[in-house]
Write a sequence for this structure.
């Protein structure tokens, strides 16, 4: 079974609710038409409700950018799995910006992945090495350690997507090369095969993230282990995001 490619737009902390609605308005019709690619928008929390209404009846899916692991209670400012499960199909967990600015550890992310799965949300689990780790030749050790740590004790992560985002490639305009990313993603797939068996690993979708644009998406999508992209900056420009999704559909079909 070929894997359905998945392109997700991580809007990060950009767009007010009104701007978010306007941006979806610019993309909606054209994105909806593209077949053969799963299309996921991940706007800020405060815009999820409005966007969920806008995309009802379309082929577009919705994701959140973070989540707490408790179901409810006295956790001021946090958002729980069942809150998101009413609106979203996906939740990005363990993004490097959460790890670095907010001190998220593999242990915490592991609890979040467990909670997402328990409430029927598909986690987009982010892993990736820093520049210093890369230059020290530690990429494989770091990335496989994150995969194992974040999946520890999880029996069967149905619906899991993994995003390989080298930290040095995020927002820098310095993307990894297709073959470079593919090699690490193959190692991620092997690690998942060790945990859950070959068949599960072959069905697992792995995205590349880090300075993806319409100019370089082709280089990634043609690689065998790359099943899509987690797009930051370029997902905030309607024409650019639509172009990335269209190229993915064409290349993966071909
Ligand atoms: P950029 O595409 O802006 O480099 O961001 C990548 C990213 O972090 C997506 O989650």
């Amino acid at each position: 079974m070929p894997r359905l490619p998945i392109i997700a737009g991580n809007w990060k902390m950009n767009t007010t609710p009104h701007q978010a609605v306007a941006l979806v308005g610019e993309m909606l019709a054209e994105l909806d038409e593209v077949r053969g690619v799963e299309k996921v928008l991940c706007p800020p929390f405060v815009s999820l409700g409005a966007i969920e209404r806008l995309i009802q009846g379309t082929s577009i899916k919705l994701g959140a950018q973070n989540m707490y692991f408790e179901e409810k209670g006295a956790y001021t400012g946090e958002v729980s799995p069942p809150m998101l499960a009413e609106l979203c199909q996906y939740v990005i967990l363990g993004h490097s910006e959460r790890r670095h600015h907010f001190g998220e550890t593999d242990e915490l992310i592991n609890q979040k992945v467990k909670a997402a799965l328990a409430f029927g949300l598909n986690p987009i689990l982010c892993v990736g090495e820093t520049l210093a780790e890369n230059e020290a030749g530690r990429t494989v050790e770091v990335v496989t350690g994150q995969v194992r740590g974040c999946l520890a004790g999880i029996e069967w992560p149905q619906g899991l997507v993994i995003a390989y985002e080298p930290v040095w490639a995020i927002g820098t305009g310095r993307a990894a090369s297709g073959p470079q990313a593919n090699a690490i993603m193959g190692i991620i797939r092997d690690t998942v095969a060790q945990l859950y068996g070959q068949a599960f690993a072959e069905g697992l979708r792995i995205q590349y993230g880090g300075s993806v644009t319409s100019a370089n998406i082709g280089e990634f999508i043609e690689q065998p282990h790359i099943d899509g992209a987690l797009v930051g900056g370029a997902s905030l420009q309607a024409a650019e995001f639509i172009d990335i999704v269209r190229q993915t559909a064409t290349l993966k079909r071909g």
Observations:
- The two ends are 15 Å apart (CA to CA).
- The first helix runs from residue 17 to 33.
- The chain has one domain: 22-236.
- Residues 29 and 58 are 9 Å apart (CA to CA).
